[in-house]
Amino acid sequence: MVSTLQSGARMVLVAAVSSGQGKTTVTAALARSLVRRGQRVRVFKCGPDFIDPMLLERACGAPVHTLDLWMVGRDECRRRLAEAAREADAVLVEGVMGLYDGTPSAADLANEFGIPVLAVIDASAMAQTAGAVARGLRDYGPVQLAGVIANRIASPGHAQMVAGSLRDIPLLGSLGRQADSLPERHLGLVLPGEQPQIDAYLDALADALQLDAAAWDALPLTAPEAQDGPAIAPALAGKTVAIARDAAFAFLYPANLDTLRILGARLVYFSPLADEALPPDADAVYLPGGYPELHGEALAQAARWRASIRAAHAAGLPIVAECGGMMALADQLTDPDGHCWPMAGLLPGAVTMGTRLAGLGAQALATPDGTLRGHTFHYSRLETPVAPSRHTVRNTSGTQGEAVYEVGSLTASYFHGYFASNPQAVASLFTRAAP
């Protein structure tokens, strides 16, 4: 149940007709603009994503969590939204793809929790037709439409034509064409931490956003109600989990770290790119995904890191490696330029980067402790003589998904698990002994 009493936060789901309309740009601009007005802002990302949340976190100054009715689950989404509404003045949820795309879709999420939709319309090649687009987005589902932000507006006159076409739908703001844009690579935006001018860029976006402050302030306050989640036994109490964290291993859900802490683990971080050895008190190792293919030479030359992960494997420490983490543990990695680099060699085989997606979508992993949900997104392929111990299952087709490999105490896959979907299964992964 959703309450609209005068408590809570102004909450919108930022959506569009398709990808490429400027949802991330508008969400970042709106978040930074509201922060500069002195408001407390929380941002969420709808659907599996690692990179956009990094930019949005930089824009709002707070961790950006994932909302997804299947992967995260309705109850956990509701708890996250309720907590954000208690802590913030504004809650922004960036949608995924088009408003009605996917099963479940961003529209499903908005309707589940009574979140008004803020439609982003790329008006660069239209004027009055923007009204038809907005009304179609509103009425097809239908969804509750808070208003429109027109993106890539050419002039004040252009904005007036768009506003006039909307009829009973408010134009909450407009954003002109931007001379600068964030650089991209094969998995999405270049990581914000690699861009020294990122804050200047976000401030420029906020400056360029023509927000109707009165219309924004007139939006209703929303306060979702939620019950506490189930108690989680501290199955990792007294354990130290060493986590690789740098530009090569950056794809981490904040909820995964939260789950490990709730399980009782102490988290310590190290950088393979800086040739840092595993912390000597580590009881388990987590190698998340990222961009090892862009740092092949540095990883190949990181002798201390490679020796320490081999020693940990030989000693039987549980090692969980996801996607890029798995790639760094193969015998060799061929980067996008065709250069072949030796990796840590815990998983026999070779990884080669491709130019087309090799895996994409929501998947589930069956475990003795129940189902662990997550997703996959990669361009590389692994050729290995190791037989998979099991496979994930694709949602919603039920067909075979990613292979899972177990070599001694190592569990490796292209599958990115969302740890909060099954904490007990995660605890078992991080305590799995070599057979």
Tell me what the structure shows:
- This protein is an alpha/beta fold and 435 residues long.
- The protein is 28% helix and 29% strand.
- It has 13 helices and 26 strands.
- The strands form 4 sheets. Strands 1, 2, 3, 4, 5, 6, 7, 8, 11 and 12 form a 10-stranded mixed sheet that branches. A 10-stranded mixed sheet has the order 14-13-15-16-25-24-23-20-21-26. It has a 4-stranded mixed sheet with strand order 18-17-19-22.
- α6 links the parallel β7 (145-153) and β8 (171-176).
- α5 crosses α6 (156-165).
- It is globular, with a radius of gyration of 23 Å.
- 49% of the residues are buried.
- Residues 1-6 have low confidence and may be disordered.
Would you summarize the structure shown here?
The chain has 13 helices and 26 strands. It is α/β, with parallel strands linked by helices and 435 residues long.
Compute the number of strand runs. 26
| Model regions low in confidence, pLDDT < 50 over at least 5 residues | 1-6
> Mean of the pLDDT scores?
94
Give the CA-based shape.
globular
Structural class of the secondary elements?
alpha/beta
N→C terminal distance: 48 Å
Rg, Å, rounded: 23 Å
Biggest sheet overview: 10 strands, mixed
Task: Give the strand content.
Answer: 25-35%
Number of helices: 13
How helical, in percent, are the residues?
Answer: 25-40%
